[in-house]
Structures are given as structure tokens and as C-alpha cells.
């Protein structure tokens, strides 16, 4: 049988239209259809090219002249053409990784997302025109590779992925956009724009932004009235919750950790459900704050690819030994990520963090950092009797309600809301969960007249403080003063050397216990001389104002 160069035949085919897929719906069928078309065109081109060959035309002419019954040279030529066409069909799309990669890249947009660390592999993502976002989905890409050539091995599929990645540009995620159900939300202008593959976005909220959406009423129930009621009709807290919704929609953390606090049935869980339904369960990282303290080696890896971190019903008084990882998560500072079986790497994850509890964690961090990063939303309504379960299980999950909350969040300007009730709740929680820190804040104020406070006096006041505020704490004296030193206001310092009490004096200079003993403490603070021998000079340690 006469051979033809099948590569020269396929190269002479009309070029494939370079238009990308406008939808990923039924993508396996679409890619299969295009692959079949390419092969069929190669078959027909090879078949026709064989008949157009001068030598074959001569054979055909002779066969026509010698036309007889039975198998003729024309039949032989026909079979030769079919065999050659079949060969062109099978080789139309090469099984080489580079060729399969090139084929997929004609129909699908690929990019690699720029990582933080220079030695980290940029993840390969494909564009989904239906959702307006780039997705990391190597499983789907491997499926498409087997659609093109069904005998592709796992190893060869990885080679195809490698070739696609090496031929895809590295792009940065545009943090100023988030995809909604009907377009891209510009988080700077809060305007809705059409989906665009040129804007690299990986976050998506399935619900659309509808500026015409009116507040729904369901059996006399309204979503904003309900939310205000569970917040004690506090307008500042209501505005704060809308800012939280705006944060989780846009991905802007505001560098705050949002702490929903209240007893069971207060509405905090229902508000958290609004966030979950709006963002979608698949975009939620269900991690409690104590699981993100850096003590769990693989804790942070669960957050990759997620939009929001939600911790439901955090244990009251749970202890967090290391807050640096949690605070880095909301500030966007580099984090160490460790996945099982993989080399640890550094990544910047900036995610809104929302936690709920009926208490407050005990944290080994300075008070200023806690006050700066934590925003408490106190939910004040505790339902009496039988609660209306339709609110959480039905009303709040309806699309029209979620769309209305989304509209409120989009149209409400960014505000730094320091709700009075939130600040009071934070101060109370710090005093209750970290009593020594609360004591420092309460006692070391500008109203003190003393320039020096002996350790014994501070310990003396602490005992009355815990009795008055009904605080159960068994911290020994040494540990107490260690924590005092770590949390002193900037105006005070712990002296590394003792202060002298002179002859015939009960107290050191600059110490005025009569003026600085709080109302709840016994004002008869005893002499610092244990043996009452005023002829001796004694030394005491304590805290001193820096300006003196």
C-alpha cells in the first residue's frame, strides 16, 4: 500500500478557530466533540489527499478503462485511502503531552497563581466563564485529558499538566474583586462589572447583587427587624453586623477577629448561618480559634482555598497559648503552612475570621493586641419558651432574604464602628477571662498618686479585687507578678533593683497607700516592716512610674 506523510496532510488542514469555551457546562462532552471534529477532519483530508495524488489519478483512470466485474483496482485504491485516513484519524491529536496540552489550551484559559514564597509552586487554575472565577481543579483537567486520549496513563496525565503549567502565565489574584452571581463586584467602588477572564478572581458568592431587591416580609417577619431585636435594638451593633457581612463578602478582614457572643438561643448561631449560606458551605473553613494557635501542625493547611473561617460554639474559657498565627491570618502576614507528606512552605492567607461562643478565650497575649484585634458582638436576646425554628431553618435561608442582606452589605459604606456595647463587652471579657490583665487595666491608671508601688501592696489590692468581683484565681505571687510585668501600661516599669525604706519609715518614698487603696480594699495597709524595727534600713521591690 502506498504511504503518505500524514503529518503533511494534517498540517494542511484549515486552522482550528481559537475561540475559548464560553461555558464549562458539559465540558467533557464539548472537549470530546472538538477532539472528534479534529480527527474527522484529518480523516477526510487524508482520504481526499490520497485520491488527488497524480499517481493515484492515473491508476483510477486505468481502472475505469479496465472496468470489469469483481474486485478492481478502484476497490484497492478505496481501501488504501481508508487505511491512510484511519492512520491520520488516530494521529490527528498526538498522544505526546505537549500536543495534548496545546489542544486543551486552545479551548480553556489557564493561569498560574503567583505564590508568596519564591520557592513555592504556583497552582494551575482554569477559567470558569459561568462563574467568572479561576478554579484549581487538576482532577477535571485529568478527566479532559482522558477524553482526548482514553488510554492516557496517570504519569502521562501529570506530564500534560506540567506542560500546561509551563506554558501558562503567572498572574496575581486581584483582591479588589469578588465574583457574585451576576457579575464581578469591584470592592473599591462597590460597582458591579461583567465577568472578565482578564481579572483574576478566585472568590465567589453565588447570590446576585440586585439593587432593586426590597426587604422581604414573611408572615409579618422582616430580616432587619429580627437582627436588630437579637442585638437588643442597638443600632451600633446592627451597623457592625452589616460591616461583618461586607467583610465576608469582599474578603476584607478589617484586620479584626469577629467574636459573636451570647447564650444559647440568642441569635448568634442564626447570624452565623446567614454567613455560611451566603458564602456557601464549600468556601467555609470550619476551624475554631483554639485549633489555629500554631500548636496543630496541619491546622493552617485546612484554610487553603477557603473564603471565611468560622468557628461554631467555641468552648468557654478555652486557652490559646499562641495568638500570632491567628492574628497573622487576619492581617495577611506570612504563615507557615504544613501539609501531610509535603515540605512546609510560607503563604499569606488573609481571611475573615468569625467565631461564636457563650464565653471568651483565655489568651497569652498582651491586652493591647487583644483590644486591637478582637471585635465582640454581644447577642442579647435569649428566647423564652418555644423558639420559632422557622426563622433559622427557613426564613433566613431563603434566597430573597440572603440577596437582601447582600444588597445591604454592598450598599453600606465601609465604616470603622466602635460600638459602645462591643467595647464594654470586650473590657468585661478581658477582666473575666484574663483577670490579671483586667486588674492591670483597672488599677494602673493615671489617678494613682504614688510614684512607686511595692509588690506587696499590689498583691494586697489583688486579693480584695478578686473577692469583690467574685473572681476565682489561684495564681501564686511569683506568677502573678510575672504576668503584671508582661502587661504593664507603657508609663510603668518593673524595677530590676530594690527600693530602700529608710530608718523610721514604714513605706518607701513616693508610695501613698492611703490615697491609692481602692474603695473595695481595706485601707489599713500594714507596714512593710515585718518586725516593726524602724532602726533598720530595708529593701523592697516594685513598680515605678517611668517619668520619676
UniProtKB/TrEMBL annotation:
Chain ranges of the SF3 helicase domain: 236-392
SUPFAM superfamilies hit by this protein: P-loop containing nucleoside triphosphate hydrolases
UniProt feature coiled coil, ranges: none
UniProt KW keywords: ATP-binding, Helicase, Hydrolase, Nucleotide-binding
Superkingdom field: Bacteria
InterPro entries: DNA_primase/NTPase_C, Helicase_put_C_phage/plasmid, Helicase_SF3_DNA-vir, NrS-1_pol-like_helicase, ORF904-like_C, P-loop_NTPase, Phage/plasmid_primase_P4_C
GO molecular function: ATP binding; helicase activity; hydrolase activity
Protein name: DNA primase
Native source organism of the sequence: Streptococcus agalactiae LMG 14747
UniProt lineage: Bacteria, Bacillati, Bacillota, Bacilli, Lactobacillales
Amino acid at each position: 500500500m502506498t504511504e503518505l506523510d500524514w503529518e503533511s496532510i494534517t498540517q494542511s488542514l484549515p486552522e482550528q478557530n481559537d475561540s475559548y469555551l464560553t461555558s464549562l457546562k458539559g465540558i467533557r462532552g464539548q472537549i470530546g466533540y472538538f477532539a472528534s471534529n479534529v480527527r474527522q477532519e484529518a480523516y477526510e483530508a487524508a482520504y481526499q489527499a490520497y485520491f488527488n495524488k497524480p499517481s493515484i489519478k492515473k491508476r483510477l483512470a486505468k481502472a475505469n478503462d479496465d472496468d470489469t466485474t469483481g474486485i478492481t483496482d478502484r476497490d484497492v485504491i478505496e481501501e488504501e485511502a481508508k487505511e491512510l485516513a484511519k492512520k491520520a484519524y488516530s494521529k490527528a491529536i498526538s498522544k505526546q503531552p505537549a500536543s495534548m496540552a496545546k489542544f486543551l489550551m486552545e479551548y480553556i484559559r489557564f493561569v498560574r497563581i503567583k505564590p508568596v514564597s519564591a520557592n513555592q509552586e504556583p497552582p494551575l487554575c482554569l477559567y470558569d466563564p459561568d462563574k467568572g472565577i479561576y478554579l484549581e481543579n487538576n482532577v477535571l483537567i485529568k478527566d479532559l485529558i482522558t477524553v482526548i486520549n482514553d488510554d492516557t496513563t496517570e504519569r502521562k496525565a501529570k506530564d500534560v499538566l506540567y506542560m500546561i503549567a509551563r506554558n501558562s502565565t503567572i498572574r496575581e489574584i486581584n483582591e479588589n474583586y469578588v465574583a457574585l452571581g451576576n457579575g464581578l463586584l469591584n470592592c473599591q467602588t462597590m460597582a458591579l462589572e461583567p465577568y472578565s477572564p482578564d481579572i483574576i478572581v478566585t472568590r465567589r458568592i453565588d447570590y446576585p447583587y440586585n439593587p432593586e431587591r426590597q426587604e422581604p416580609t414573611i408572615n409579618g417577619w422582616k430580616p432587619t427587624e429580627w437582627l436588630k431585636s437579637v442585638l437588643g435594638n442597638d443600632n451600633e451593633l446592627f451597623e457592625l453586623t452589616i460591616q461583618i457581612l461586607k467583610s465576608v463578602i469582599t474578603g476584607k478582614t478589617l484586620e479584626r477577629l469577629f467574636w459573636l457572643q451570647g447564650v444559647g438561643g440568642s441569635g448568634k448561631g442564626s447570624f452565623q448561618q446567614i454567613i455560611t449560606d451566603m458564602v456557601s458551605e464549600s468556601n467555609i473553613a470550619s476551624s475554631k480559634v483554639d485549633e489555629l494557635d500554631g500548636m496543630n501542625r496541619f491546622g493552617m493547611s485546612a484554610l487553603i482555598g477557603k473564603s471565611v473561617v468560622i468557628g461554631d460554639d467555641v468552648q468557654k474559657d478555652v486557652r490559646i497559648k499562641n495568638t500570632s498565627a491567628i492574628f497573622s491570618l487576619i492581617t495577611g502576614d506570612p504563615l507557615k503552612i504544613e501539609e501531610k507528606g509535603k515540605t512546609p512552605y510560607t503563604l499569606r492567607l488573609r481571611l475573615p475570621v468569625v467565631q461564636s461562643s457563650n464565653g471568651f478565650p483565655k489568651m497569652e497575649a498582651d491586652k493591647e493586641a487583644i483590644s486591637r484585634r478582637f471585635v465582640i458582638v454581644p447577642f442579647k436576646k435569649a428566647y423564652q419558651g418555644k423558639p420559632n425554628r422557622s426563622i433559622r431553618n427557613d426564613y433566613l435561608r431563603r434566597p430573597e432574604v440572603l440577596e437582601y442582606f447582600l444588597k445591604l452589605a454592598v450598599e453600606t459604606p465601609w465604616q470603622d464602628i466602635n460600638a459602645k456595647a462591643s467595647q464594654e463587652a470586650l473590657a468585661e471579657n478581658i477582666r473575666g477571662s484574663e483577670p490579671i490583665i483586667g486588674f492591670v487595666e483597672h488599677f494602673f491608671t493615671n489617678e494613682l498618686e504614688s510614684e512607686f508601688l511595692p509588690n506587696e501592696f499590689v498583691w494586697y489590692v489583688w486579693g480584695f479585687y478578686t473577692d469583690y468581683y467574685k473572681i476565682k484565681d489561684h495564681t501564686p505571687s511569683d506568677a502573678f507578678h510575672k504576668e503584671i510585668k508582661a502587661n504593664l501600661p507603657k508609663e510603668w516599669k518593673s524595677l530590676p533593683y530594690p527600693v530602700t525604706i529608710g530608718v523610721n519609715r514604714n513605706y518607701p518614698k513616693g508610695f501613698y497607700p492611703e490615697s491609692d487603696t481602692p474603695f473595695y480594699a481595706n485601707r489599713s495597709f500594714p507596714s512593710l516592716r515585718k518586725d516593726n524595727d524602724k532602726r533598720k534600713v530595708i529593701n523592697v521591690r516594685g513598680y515605678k512610674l517611668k517619668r520619676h
